[in-house]
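Customer escalation, tier 2.

The customer says the design service returned an amino acid string that "doesn't look like it belongs to this structure." They asked us to rerun it and document both sides in this ticket. The original structure tokens are below, unchanged.
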């Protein structure tokens, strides 16, 4: 695993407040803490967190256009993440484009989640997903997933998702939408 240094900050405001530009809208957030193992993520707990985030966001797996992978490049995490992705996107058509930025930034630990969020916002804004740097031979468990390799992939990107596979079984999963829709305006149940 390549370590990196980096940080990011974002401003989160409730819909209808503030006067700055809106880049994305948070649609759903979920978190688990399964205490499965100190360093081995639990696929079932991660799958539940992802599905709960989709439920809270009011989206289905087939609605997701972009997945920002945890992508640590470690055998155990990559195997688990691939297994979860295959399960979540089973039957969801061609599935979303998927990328990871740790090969570019190194693993920034606590900063990695927000760095992935910023990259997803830029990808949605530009309509371009960067490739997983240096990925030439994905593990067999990732076969059929929409991994972006070699060159950037262009397309309409409206809904993105990010999941972090943290130590000690803590897994936050978030879904967000680039364009506001009728469900975003002045919601009071959030």
């Amino acid at each position: 695993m390549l370590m990196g240094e980096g940080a990011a900050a974002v401003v989160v405001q409730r819909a209808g407040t503030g006067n700055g530009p809106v880049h994305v809208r948070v649609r759903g957030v979920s978190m688990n803490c399964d205490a499965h193992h100190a360093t081995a993520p639990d696929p079932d707990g991660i799958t539940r967190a992802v599905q709960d985030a989709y439920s809270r966001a009011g989206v289905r797996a087939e609605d997701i256009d972009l997945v920002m992978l945890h992508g640590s490049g470690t055998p155990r995490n990559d195997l688990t993440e691939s297994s979860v992705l295959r399960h979540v996107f089973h039957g969801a058509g061609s599935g979303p484009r998927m990328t990871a930025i740790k090969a570019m930034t190194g693993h920034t630990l606590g900063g990695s989640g927000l760095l992935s969020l910023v990259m997803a916002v830029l990808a949605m804004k530009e309509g371009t997903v960067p490739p997983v740097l240096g990925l030439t031979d994905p593990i067999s468990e990732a076969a059929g997933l929409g991994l972006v390799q070699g060159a950037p992939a262009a397309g309409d990107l409206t809904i993105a998702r990010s999941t972090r596979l943290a130590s000690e079984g803590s897994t936050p999963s978030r879904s967000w939408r680039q364009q506001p829709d009728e469900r975003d305006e002045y919601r009071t149940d959030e």
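Tier 2 assessment: The sequence is consistent with the input. DSSP finds four helices and seven strands in the chain. The first strand starts at residue 25 and ends at 33. Sent an explanation to the customer and offered a walkthrough call.
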